[in-house]
Amino acid sequence: MALLIVPSPLGRISGRIGDVVFRNYPDKTVVGIRPQSFTPGTDIASVHRRLRFKLTAMLSKCIKNFQPAYDLWSQHTNRKMSAYNLIFKNNYKAVFYDYISDYVQIFPKIDFLIKPESLSINKESFRINFIPEDSHLTGVNSPKYLQMAAIIFCKEPIDQSDSKFNFINYLSAPVEIVEGQNLSFNLSFSENQESPAESMNQQDSAAFSRYNYHSVFVSFLALNSEKTFVQNSQTISLLNT
């Protein structure tokens, strides 16, 4: 059903009248024809396209849940594209119908580069160690803390009744940058209060354990003395462990 929007004397029509659809934008109204129903193709190429679209949507939603990332993507949008759609557009190239490559962009731009001294992942935990000076993160006007934003892509469920894919996002506690000292971020994939590493919550840990293969994508947020976001690193990828 169409609605009459009244910012002007004659108003603007929004919605559907029969097969005619009215879509309103800030500067114009677009009139189109209602799409006819169709049966999705069952050939392998069509099935793969739908899976790729679905997987990109799941990844985009996970990135959108990081507020600093969403805020930055929002700054790069125009009035016809939402932040979510821009995230989707820029990450579509990284997604295939059954896996995700190392072209993921958690943030739309890169302010500094992390150069890992060591990087490891197994079924139990993830660890990254680096020297802040190598990323030019120390000095009088430099950020005071770093925080890790991680996205974990899970595939090949142990129980075939589970979803084929799943995503888990994680935001670490801020870690103070101390000149001359290495920084280490450790994430345990199981909820273990005795571990020196940060742990995922029980729900995410259970979700992680239900899949055979995992890929991890991380980016680092630099924070000021009030622990407010100021800039971000590139996205670092570890695929299919």
Describe this structure in words.
The chain is globular. The chain is an alpha+beta fold and 241 residues long. The strands form 3 sheets. Strands 7, 8, 9, 12, 13 and 14 form a 6-stranded antiparallel β-sheet that branches. A 4-stranded antiparallel β-sheet has the order 1-2-3-4, with no helix packed on it. It has a 4-stranded mixed β-sheet with strand order 5-6-10-11, with no helix packed on it. A hairpin with a 6-residue loop joins strand 1 and strand 2. The chain folds into 2 domains: 31 residues, no CATH class; 195 residues, no CATH class.
Short structural summary:
With 241 residues, the protein is α+β, with helices and mostly antiparallel strands. It contains 4 helices and 14 strands. The longest helix has 21 residues, at 44-64.
What is the rounded Rg?
A: 22 Å
Beta-strand fraction estimate: 25-35%
| Helix content bin | 10-25%
Main sheet summary: 6 strands, antiparallel
Secondary-structure-derived class:
alpha+beta
Quickly list its features:
six-stranded antiparallel beta sheet, alpha+beta, globular, 241 residues, 4 helices
Secondary structure layout:
Blueprint: E1 3-5, E2 12-17, E3 20-25, E4 28-33, H1 44-64, H2 67-75, H3 83-91, E5 116-121, E6 125-130, E7 145-157, E8 165-171, E9 175-176, E10 183-188, E11 198-199, H4 202-209, E12 211-223, E13 229-232, E14 236-238
Parallel strand pairs: 10-11
Antiparallel strand pairs: 1-2, 2-3, 3-4, 5-6, 6-10, 7-8, 7-9, 7-12, 12-13, 12-14
